[in-house]
Amino acid sequence: MIKDHRTTSHSPLGEVRAYPTEYDPGLLFPIPRIKARADLGIEGGLSFHGEDIWNAYEVSWLLPNGVPCARIATLRFACTSPNMIESKSLKLYLNSINNVEFRSDAHAADTIATDLSAVAGAPVTVDLVRPSLSMGPDTSAWDAWCIDDPTVKITEYERDASLLEIDEGGDQVGATVYSNLLRTCCPVTGQPDWASILIRYNGPWIKHKALLRYLVSFRNHSDYHEHCVERIFCDLKVRCRTRRLSVYARYTRRGGLDINPFRSDFESTPPNIRLERQ
């Protein structure tokens, strides 16, 4: 049975936990999306679509003859699902299947998908690949302009949307930019989370130095990966008056998991490429 957790105070994140030796889907801990979205003023229907793409690099179980399998799992959560899943609880859950027998990859994937979907409140897709068939690093995957500039003076390290600036009265443009300098913090443990972030938009020109200052202002901001990306999306939408916008963050892995939220009001989900730092 799935546990009905009500507050993050019951989350396993930040607690010392023994790793499970028996299969237990009740380890999965849901985090409702609604509160963070209410803080952003998002009521009713969403102004964007997208997915949270998780890559789990430490997935293993037993075949009926006792031989272990090692796989990499790609998990896709629709941003319309009522709940996210807390990352440590997912790691504990995946470890709980280490001594479970599955007939095949399909059997394992179906079991994991069923358990995750029950907690997320919406279908979750699970794809398993052998490590030798994993997606490889692709440093050229983002055909975009890097806005990281070591000569920019930066003094703000708490999120500040007022730092954003556009070219008032200028032409409408289409641009794709990225930064490798996004850092946010876990809201429970305070541990840093590092990411590269891609922003594609149509609308008034967003000044690069101002955008970099804004992204760096998340350096001491505490929130979950998914919430941070939605906050960036909403800040850009409101402050920069974009007509079309996509925001895609590729976070580095922690505990064998990386989380890569994508939000857009015009694009489909991009490929699940892996950057060098991942």
Provide an overview of this structure.
This protein is of the alpha+beta class and 278 residues long. It has five helices and ten strands. The strands form two sheets. Strands 5-3-2-10-9-8-7-6 form an eight-stranded mixed beta sheet, with helices on one face. Strands 1-4 form a two-stranded antiparallel ribbon. The N terminus is likely disordered.
In short:
The strands form 2 sheets. The protein has an 8-stranded mixed β-sheet with strand order 5-3-2-10-9-8-7-6, covered by helices on one side.
Radius of gyration: 20 Å
Distinct helical segment count? 5
User: What's the helical proportion of residues?
Assistant: 10-25%
Main sheet attributes: strand count, strand direction, barrel closure? 8 strands, mixed
Strand order of the largest sheet: 5-3-2-10-9-8-7-6
Beta-strand proportion = 25-35%
SSE string, helices as H and strands as E: EHEEEHHEEEEHHEE
What's the overall average pLDDT, rounded?
A: 90
Shape: elongated
Q: How many individual β-strands?
A: 10
Termini, distance in Å?
34 Å
Stretches with pLDDT under 50, minimum 5 residues: 1-6
Estimated structural class: alpha+beta
Tell me the quaternary state: single chain
